[in-house]
Predict the structure.
Amino acid sequence: MKKEFDLMLCDDGVTRSVPIIDGVKVDPSKGKPKEIKKEEKPEKPKISIQDRITNQVYDFVSSIEGVIDDFIISNYKLKYDFYKQLTEAGCKSVHARKMRKIYLESYNELVDVYNKEDDYVQEAWSHLKPKTIQKMMDFYGMILDDIDRIIKNASAQRKPRKKKEVSTTKLLKTFKYQKESPEFKLVSINPEKIIGASELWIFNTRYKTLGVYYAQNTVRGFSVKGCTIQHFDKETSMQKTARKPMEALSGLNKRSLKKSLKDMKTKDQILTGRINAQTILLGAF
């Protein structure tokens, strides 16, 4: 006997051809659970790490540009701490390196205007007097100095790659030093860098003294016992009082620190080897 079929709207909501048995249309979907179509949610666009960093840099630059506007409104008299503003806002060295390119370009442009080396740029800034250009140049210089300090301080906190033979963790267990000085915009290096180094530069934030330790033996270098530097040369190690600390600390590399110490007119003072909670560790070499 030939099977008969007819169209039928089934329970599952689908119209299909179904068999007719004993004059009755048989719904094949009966007893089967209805399929529920899942709604496809649109995927949120993924932001790359580089794009996120770039967006954060835009935010930092925007805040700095606001301060520059305030500086101009104040008739070029505003004093501002960009280091404090940026670090409190979460600015890291990865942001600072990108920002440095922006403000170095602006600074160099102002230098060209001041030196009258570029006619095109000169015309753009012709509405300002030379004294005003110099004030703008100094202000952008302050921005660059604080950006450079953020970059330098970030590298100071990195752990040394070279593994030490002595257990530095054990040696530095009770070692006390000043980790950061917002007043002088300084951050101490990781104290692990002292072990085995032959030269250590320090700055006492209480007495404003700049000092340097030289190791007795450059092969062995320094060690630490409690809060005291071991194996330093008492004859060559010395410190001086800095009458203008910010000028003395404008450059934190070995060459700049040596020049700053040499140029100071204050008396030489002996170093005892003691490091305390008012001592910033500027660098170990």
User: Anything to note?
Assistant: The longest strand covers residues 15-21. The mean pLDDT is 87.
